[in-house]
Design goal:
The complex is a heterodimer of chains A (233) and B (253). Chain A is mostly helical. Helices cover 72% and strands 3% of the residues of chain A. Chain A has a two-stranded antiparallel sheet with strand order 1-2. In chain A, strand 1 (144-147) and strand 2 form a beta hairpin. Chain A is globular, with a radius of gyration of 20 Å. Chain B has helices at residues 37-50, 121-130, 150-160, 167-171, 178-189, 198-211, 222-226, 234-252, and strands at residues 4-13, 22-32, 73-74, 77-78, 99-103, 112-114, 117-118. Chain B has eight helices and seven strands; from the N terminus they run ββαβββββααααααα. Classes of the chains: A mainly alpha (233), B alpha+beta (253). The complex binds protoporphyrin IX containing FE and FE2/S2 (inorganic) cluster (FES).
Chain lengths: 233, 253
C-alpha cells in the first residue's frame, strides 16, 4: 500500500491529482473564508460572534483540526507544484526563438508566480490578523469587547484598524488580484486533472472558474475598500 | 511561371547531439508559392550542395500528411501556422520578405540528432510499454464476430488518427507527451478488444512516459491547437480518469 502510494505520487498524473485535490480543498476554504469575512457588513456583533463560534466549536478543537488540515493541504500543494514546475522546466531546457503559443492563458503560464505570491501573502496575513504582529494600534485590552455578557475578541475593530492604513489595504487588494489570477486557471484545472469534465462541459467549467475568481475578488477586496472609504468603521 | 517569394530563413544548425547549435541565416530567393514547405527546404539544400556547403538535415517520408515523420517548429509553432503537417504546409501561407524561424522540436526527451532532426524513439518505447492488444495467434477472427457500437468505433477512430509526430510535445510549454499517450490509451480503451487491458496499459504507458523525461500537463491546451490531426485534449481528461482509477485499484487490491 505504501509503495503503491509513493508510486502514485511519483507519477506525473498522480502528482497532478494531489495538486488538484488540495487545490479544490483550498478553493472551498477560500470561498468559506470570504463568506465569513463578509459578515463585517452586518456590524461588529455579527463578525465577533462568528469568531467566537469558530473558536468554541468542538470545545476549541475544531479550529485546530481545521488549521492542521489547511496546513497539510497548503504544504502538499506547494511541494507538488514546485516539483512539477521544476520537472517541466527540465523537460524543455531550451525554448523557441519565437513564442508560438495559441491557446494558453497568462494565468496558466504564471501559476507558480501567482502561487508563490499568494504564499507570501498568506504568511503576511497570518502574522497580521491571526498573530496580530504590528497590529497594535490600541492597547491589547481594547481588542476585546463584550458580546452577550461574554468577553470576546473584537475582530471588527482589528479589521478596521488594520485596513485604515492604506499601504496595508493596497497590498491586500494586490494579493487578491494575484490569487484570483491563480484561480482563473486553477478552478478549471481541477476538473481537467481529475478527469471530471467532458467535451460538452469544458467551456462551462472554464467560465464557472472565471465567475468564481470574480466573486472572490469582489467579495474580498470590497472590505479594505469599504474601510478606506469609511463605509465600515 | 508562378509567383515566387524572397524569404530570409533563420535555420537551426547543429552538428550533432553534443554540439550546442546556433541559428544560421539563409537567403531563400525565388521560392515558388506552390512549393510545400519541405520542397522549399529541398530547393535550399540543392543550392547549399551546389555551393559545397552542408545541406540542412530534416525529417520527411510520405509527404502526404499520413506518416508523422516530418516535424519542425516554424515561427514557434510545430508544423507551422496551419493546423496540418509540415509536408502539407505550402509557401502560399507566407508573404514575400518574411523572416521564417525554423527549429527542431525541442524537448529533453527528443534529443537533436542533427540540425532539424530529433530522436523520437521515446514514443516507440511508450507504445512498446502497452500500446497494443494481446491476442491469441491462429486464424483471423470472422468479420463482425465482436460487435462494436458505432459511437465507440467513431471515438476510437478519432484517437487512432494520431500519427505520432510529436507536435504535441513540441507545442506543450512543459514538453509533455500527454496528448500522444492519451490518444493511444483512449483509442484502445474505446474498443472491446482493448478494454480488458486498459488498467495495465495506462499504468505502464504513463510510467514509461514519465521515465522518458517528458514534462507534466498543466492544462495549457497547446497540444490540441498544434495537433495536425486535431486530436482533442478531452483524451487527456479521460486518461487522467483511467490512470487514477487504475492506480487506486492497484493500491487497494
Ligand atoms: C502557496 C502558494 C501556492 C502555490 C505555490 C501554488 C502553485 C500552483 C501551481 C504551480 C499550480 C499549477 C498547476 C497548473 O498549472 O495546472 C497550481 C494549481 C492550482 N492551485 Fe495553487 N498554488 C498556491 C496556492 C494556492 C491557493 C491558496 C489555492 C486556492 C485557493 C490554490 C489553488 C490551486 C488550484 C485549484 C490549482 C489547480 C489544480 C490542477 O492543476 O488541477 N493554489 N497551484
Ligand atoms: S512526411 Fe509524412 S506526415 Fe509529413
Amino acid at each position: 500500500m505504501m509503495t503503491q502510494l509513493s508510486r502514485f505520487y511519483a507519477s506525473s498524473i498522480g502528482k497532478k491529482a494531489v495538486v488538484a485535490v488540495t487545490g479544490a480543498g483550498l478553493l472551498a476554504f477560500v470561498f468559506a473564508h470570504m463568506t465569513g469575512n463578509l459578515l463585517i457588513y452586518l456590524g461588529p456583533d455579527a463578525i465577533n460572534a462568528y469568531g467566537r463560534f469558530l473558536h468554541e466549536l468542538g470545545h476549541g478543537t475544531a479550529i485546530w483540526f481545521a488549521r492542521l488540515g489547511l496546513l497539510a493541504m497548503f504544504g502538499l500543494h506547494i511541494v507538488a507544484t514546485v516539483q512539477l514546475t521544476r520537472q517541466n522546466r527540465a523537460a524543455r531546457p531550451r525554448g523557441y526563438a519565437l513564442d508560438g503559443c495559441q491557446r494558453t492563458t497568462s494565468a496558466a503560464r504564471f501559476m507558480i508566480v501567482s502561487g508563490l505570491t499568494v504564499l507570501a501573502f498568506v504568511i503576511y496575513h497570518l502574522m497580521h490578523f491571526t498573530l496580530g504582529v504590528g497590529n497594535d494600534y490600541r492597547t491589547a485590552e481594547e481588542y476585546f469587547t463584550m458580546l452577550d455578557g461574554e468577553r470576546v475578541h473584537n475582530i471588527h475593530q482589528m479589521v478596521v484598524d488594520g485596513f485604515s492604513v492604506w499601504p496595508v489595504s493596497v497590498f491586500y487588494i494586490l494579493a487578491m488580484f494575484l490569487l484570483c489570477w491563480h484561480l482563473m486557471h486553477g478552478f478549471s484545472s481541477v476538473f481537467q486533472t481529475l478527469g471530471a469534465q467532458t467535451h460538452g462541459t469544458r467551456r462551462i467549467v472554464r467560465y464557472a472558474g472565471y465567475g468564481f475568481a470574480a466573486v472572490i475578488l469582489i467579495g474580498n477586496t470590497s472590505i479594505p475598500l469599504a474601510v478606506l472609504f469609511g463605509l465600515v468603521s | 511561371m508562378s509567383e515566387t517569394l524572397n524569404l530570409i530563413l533563420k535555420v537551426w544548425r547543429q552538428q550533432g547531439p553534443a554540439d550546442v547549435g546556433r541559428f544560421e541565416e539563409i537567403d531563400a530567393k525565388g521560392i515558388p508559392v506552390d512549393a510545400s514547405f519541405l520542397e522549399m527546404l529541398d530547393i535550399i539544400n540543392e543550392r547549399l550542395i551546389e555551393n559545397g556547403a552542408d545541406p540542412v538535415a530534416f525529417d520527411h517520408d510520405c509527404r502526404e500528411g499520413i506518416c508523422g515523420t516530418c516535424s519542425l517548429v516554424i515561427n514557434g509553432m510545430p508544423h507551422g501556422p496551419k493546423q496540418t503537417t509540415t509536408c502539407q504546409l505550402h509557401m502560399r501561407s507566407f508573404r514575400d520578405g518574411d523572416v521564417i524561424w525554423i527549429e527542431p522540436f525541442r524537448a529533453n526527451a527528443f534529443p537533436v540528432i542533427k540540425d532539424l532532426t530529433v530522436d523520437r524513439t521515446a514514443f516507440d518505447r511508450i507504445i512498446a510499454a502497452g500500446g497494443y492488444v494481446s491476442v491469441r495467434t491462429g486464424a483471423a477472427p470472422d468479420a463482425n464476430s465482436m460487435p462494436v457500437p458505432k459511437e465507440q468505433a467513431d471515438d476510437a477512430f478519432d484517437a487512432a488518427t494520431c500519427i505520432g509526430c510529436g507536435a504535441c510535445v513540441a507545442a506543450c510549454p512543459n514538453a509533455s507527451a500527454m496528448l500522444f499517450a492519451a490518444a493511444k490509451i483512449g483509442h484502445l480503451d474505446s474498443l472491446p478488444q482493448g478494454k480488458p487491458e486498459t488498467r495495465r496499459r495506462v499504468l505502464a504507458m504513463v510510467r514509461t512516459m514519465d521515465a522518458e523525461g517528458f514534462g507534466n500537463c498543466t492544462n495549457h491546451y497547446e497540444c490540441e491547437a498544434a495537433c495536425p490531426k486535431e486530436i482533442s485534449a478531452d483524451w487527456i481528461t479521460r486518461m487522467n480518469r483511467l490512470h487514477n482509477k487504475a492506480a487506486t485499484i492497484e493500491a487497494v487490491r
